[in-house]
Amino acid sequence: MADELRATLEVEAPVTAPTDRELTVEVGWVLAGAFDEVDRRALALARTRLAELITTWFPGFAWRFPVVWRRELRPGSPVEPIELLEAATDERDHGRWDFVLVVTAAALKSHYKPFALGAPSSALDAAVISTQRLDPIVEDEQAEEDERIETIARRVTALAVHLLGHLNDLPHQDDPADFMYDLKTAADLDRMRYLQDRERMEEALREVAAERLEETATYRRPGLARRRGARLGFGLRVLWREWRNIWEAVRDVEPWLFPLRFSRLTTAAFSALVFLLMTAEVWELGMSQPPLRVAALALLTLAATSLYLLQRQHLLRRHRWETRFSEQRTVAGIAATVSVVLGMATTFLLIFLAVLLIGKLLFSFRLISGWAALEPTWRHYLTFAGFVATLGLVAGALGASFEQEVYFRHVLLIDEET
């Protein structure tokens, strides 16, 4: 029986003829863990329907929808979406897919909402779907088996289209019948019927279907990926070639919200700020520094704290088995790096403005002149604010290093909780 159900899942979905290699798009499915018979049949139906829908909308591409069943991935419920996404990207790299959808029967852990049905990651070209809340038995215990299969299949298909839209940078729509509607419940998936931004998605797919950098003759040589110089050159070429996709991934992360999302970072930084503001020696030391020295120290500290967090949270980790170049992994790594730098820069700016405001409101010229043995001017206040913000950034980085790794990666790599 198990073999028969697996055969049902692994049957090839309808695809167009591969007439042009440059227009081939592969959307891999990774089934994570165990599924009951209803889920298996529903997923097989959803995969076929998604293939039919996508190939009808975009007939100019040769579509492939391979499937891999990872039975050993038996996550507890709720499961962190990022853990499944990172496991799925290994399959994506192995199969050289363009996108990957990982499906689980477990509930997804949500950090911003009461629950999540799915989660896209444009940086990883991957998305995760949970079938737990898609089953009508959650709402009606008397639902028949055929009704359950049909409803789950319909909802998985709609959710897969919605997530693929996110991976191709489609915005949300206000019409509940549009697949890019910002859904709130599983029932919202039942009303989705059309995709308004198909032309925009087709344009994005043409970029996806183009030959990736690692597929060119330059980077297909055996052993080249192990050379540090070659990897640096590859990374620079990816940055030049994919800067728009990198920026879109960074924008989806919203690094300017770091101080709100990482409470340990903000708490440590502003705790240091309070202590430093009440110390006369700090005022004297900070105001006596040349502005250019403070600016250079701030830039150096921003680079050092960003690198520290990237290493501490294992965002620059390489797998030992990774012997090939991967444009997708490189894009994700660059996007994560830029996001951390911008997030720390936002934290620095916030501390700088807070110090400047508090200093001007609460610390008079007469008080400061008694502490620092000088006649303070605006230049001195600005220099002092930069000096304290630099020290506060160091404290914030130490605080952020204690954030749970899985949560830190969730913030950096997952666009939204759908």
- The structural domain count equals 2
CATH topology-level fold name of the largest domain: Collagenase (Catalytic Domain)
Level-1 CATH class name of the largest domain: Alpha Beta
Looking at the overall shape, the CATH architecture of the largest domain is 3-Layer(aba) Sandwich
Report the end-to-end length measured between terminal Cα atoms: 34 Å
Mean pLDDT: 81
> How much is the radius of gyration in Å?
25 Å
Give me the secondary-structure category. Answer: alpha/beta
What does this structure look like?
The chain has 418 residues and is an alpha/beta fold. It has 2 domains: 2-207, Collagenase (Catalytic Domain), CATH 3.40.390; 224-413, no CATH class. It contains 15 helices and 6 strands. Strands 1, 2, 3, 4, 5 and 6 form a 6-stranded mixed sheet that branches. β5 and β6 form a beta hairpin. The model is unreliable at 1-21 (pLDDT under 50).
